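(Fold this chain)
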Amino acid sequence: MPVPFEAFIPMGLVVVMFGITGTGFNIAKRMTNDGKPQRHGLDDWEHMMMKRDERLTGSLRGQSVDPVAPPGFATNSIWETERVK
């Protein structure tokens, strides 16, 4: 049974729109991750390292190769900002 040619235009529009939205979402996610792919399946250790990297560089995905931490790193600990009850 042949496919009617009238179905090609709406199906083409659906495919193109899914492609555009998928590509736009991928670009938006990469922009928020400093141009790197999104991370999946993170455990507690990786979350802790991401917080440390953010304190060192100001970015969740940024990493520093400097062996000496900046002077502000000693005083911007997360533990000092939390209230202990």
In short: Helices lie at 8-32, 44-57. The chain has two domains: 1-38, 39-85. The CA atoms of residues 11 and 17 lie 10 Å apart. The mean pLDDT is 84.
